[in-house]
Structures are given as structure tokens and as C-alpha cells.
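Researcher: I'm preparing a figure for a lab meeting and need a structural model of a single chain. I don't have an experimental structure, so a prediction will have to do for now. The sequence is pasted below. Please return the structure as C-alpha cells so I can convert it later.
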Amino acid sequence: MRRRLYLLGIPLGAMMLTAVWARAGRPPPPPPLVLGELPLVSVPGEELSGGGATVKDTGRNAFGRSPPNLDRARWPQFHIGKRVFDRDWSDPAHGPGLGPLFSASSCMTCHVKDGRGRPPESPSEPAVSIAFQLGSPDGPGPHPVYGEQLDLHRLGGLRGEGTVVVRHEEFSGRFSSGEPYVLARPIYQFEHLAQGPLGEGTPFSPRVAPANFGLGLLEALPEETLLVREDAEDRDQDGISGRANRVEDVRTRGTRMGRFGWKANQPTLLQQVAHALVADMGLTNELYPRAQEAEARAAPEAVDVRAYDLEQLMFYTRLLAVPKRRDWDAPAVLRGKAVFRAIGCAACHVDEPMETGEVPGFPELSRQVIYPYSDLLLHDMGEALADGRPDGLATGQEWRTPPLWGIGLTATVNGHTRFLHDGRARNLEEAVLWHGGEAAPAQTRYTRLPREDREALLAFLGSL
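Model: Understood. Here is the structure written out cell by cell.
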């Protein structure tokens, strides 16, 4: 009898647990998922996530390195760009451009060591590397009073447009194998609002600063490579209906596929950086001059960030290298890789190699075989992760699949393990458990895995 139960994928112990939960008046978890033997395959070169632009450093500075294929003659320009990235724009030596309202005074403030930001860990801790984007309570567009982002700082003032207090509400679940887990849902409270309440029904989106490395490689992926995976109508009926966000290219005034930002709302890396300068620091530039500076493109001195500084910053940002994987061929990691694919994670976090195109002026990024573990498409992630704030074609429940490369070094570089767009997940397992919408079937399969397979999948993620 016991042998027959195992053949059905339902261990006897799990049946006993189900009976116990039923007597306790709680709904039992779904039956265990026994995957059995899976092919353990190590692909030559997969440890070089960024191809020739992969750096071997796996220490505290792993996210801020130049690629090993960068010509020595170009090193000085990379370091000049790094200085612009680190620049404190509140220093009068750099002009009066910062603010007057702002969220940070330097790029480095939020992207510490070019890595990932995090939310406050207690109600008393100020928000630093997380921004609060706002929408209108009456429809599309920015907030009628506070604009598209709540700025928490003001030049010469104690506070900016307001403060944000973050508290958490915990709730628990249980894996099929019996172990409990606890998730923490963030609750935001806006206080000391300088121009009155936001208004009932105002959509807002808390977003932590993402890591900066590998962005030039993502931009170098041909659009057709990404669009071939688009399946907005789910024609193959696999439950995954990824679609591209299509947004305005400010420079050309045309519409292009978005690939940067939490909702893929920026089509180019230049626009992503230029928008961050003006939105987060109030620094005007050639793409985003102030309304009263309509002639800024014809008069470069009329903007806060000179064209030269923006060019150097872009050189640095474009060439930040991807860190090499660790233990990629260890048996437990290979098992986790197989589990990752078996339960459906690779449907969005694509585990197949992609090749970049030819990038004029950047041989370091050209024709590289890379493993970003993303399709860069929008997916419905369910109500639990929804922010209710549309962004381009993205709905309030849709998010771009974030790349996973380097994710296992977050604790080493940034000293924390906070993940997802608002940092609510306290570790990689919680990030998996928060998945809903199109990812709900994969999340459910994860909760049904035996502990050994869950640990193997996490070991795989930690190797990236």
C-alpha cells in the first residue's frame, strides 16, 4: 500500500498531516509534488552571465566593476563616469541644480555600490533608497498637486513634501511538507504632507532602487529577440501572456518597446538615466529640461547636468559588468536549476542564452551570449503585488520580469536580502511565495515541493 502511495506522488506522512489539519479545522495544503529524477545539465559558458562582459569579482564591489574586455585606454572614461555617479549634487561646487525638491542628492545614495535599494526596516527609519511614485485619483496622469513622485527632501528645509511610515502586517502559510512560513505585507502611511492630503483613491507605487549592472547588455538585445516571446493573448495556452510595454521615446518622439524600470516604462538606457536625474534629484538635462527652459537643447548651459557629464555617466552605467556565477556546476545547484524549469519559473525568467546585437562604439557589449534570466516583458503578478498605478501600457497588476543575474550576491554587496519592487520579500524564498497572477501555478508548485527541492532551487538562485 505504501509503495502505491509513493508511486502516486503522495507520501504516507503527508496523508497523515492532511488528516490532522482537517481535524484542526484548517484547510489542508495541496498534496506534495514529487518530481523524481530530473536531468542535471551544465551548459558550457553559462557561468559567464554577461558573456565577455562578466567580471570574476564576487565580493563587496562585485556590482561596480568595469568589464574585463574593456580596452585599457577606455578605463579613464569609466572612472570619470563613476565620479559623476558618486557626485553629491547638493555641493555648491556643482551648481544650484539639485531640487529644490528631491528624493536623493546622488545616484549612489539609492544605488549603493551600484546595487539594490531596500525599504525602511522599522517605522522609525527614514525612507532612503525607495521612491514613491504617484498617480491621479481621477484617472491617468500624475498627481494634480504632488506630481509623479513624492519628494521627501527639500533644499534648506527639514523635510520635503512629506514623510512615509512603513509598517508590516504578517500572515502565515504552510508548505505541503508541513513547515510554516510567514510573509510580511507592507502598509504605508503618509504624514506631514506639505500641500494637504493626497486624496482618497490616489494610486501610489513604492519602488526600491534596482541594481545597475548589466544594463548595457540588456539594451543591446535586439528587439526581435524579446518580441518573439510576446504572447499577449496566450495563444499557446500555457497560462503565461507576457507582453511588451510600448512607451514614448522622448528623443525621437516615437513609440518603442520599453525594457527598463519596474514596469518597463523606459525604452532606452539614456532615457532611464535622464529621467531618474530629473525625477529623483530635480536635475534637468538635455532630455528633460524644465518647462520654462524650452530652448535648453539649443542652449546646453540652461540645464543642470551638462551634456559632457551625462555622456560620462552613460558610459559608466552602460558598461557596468555582470558578476560571474558561483558553484554553477555543483550537484545541488544543477538540481535546483532543473526544479526551476520543472515548476515553470523559466517561462518568464528565461533560462536560455540570448545574444546581443552589434553596438556601435561598444565592442564590449556586442555579440555577447548572456543569461539575464528575464524576458523583459510585462506579466500580471496578481492582486497581492498590484500597485494600482498604470504605467504606459502596463496595468496596475503588471510588472516587468526582473533579471535574476547577480541576485545571489545582494547580501554580500548591499548587506540585505530584500527583493521585489517594494522590497517586501525578506529573502529569496519570500520573493517566490509572493508571486501571483500568471506566476501563481509556479508558486503553488513551489509550496508543494519537498524541502530538499526547495533548498536546491534556492541554492540555484543563490548561484546566479
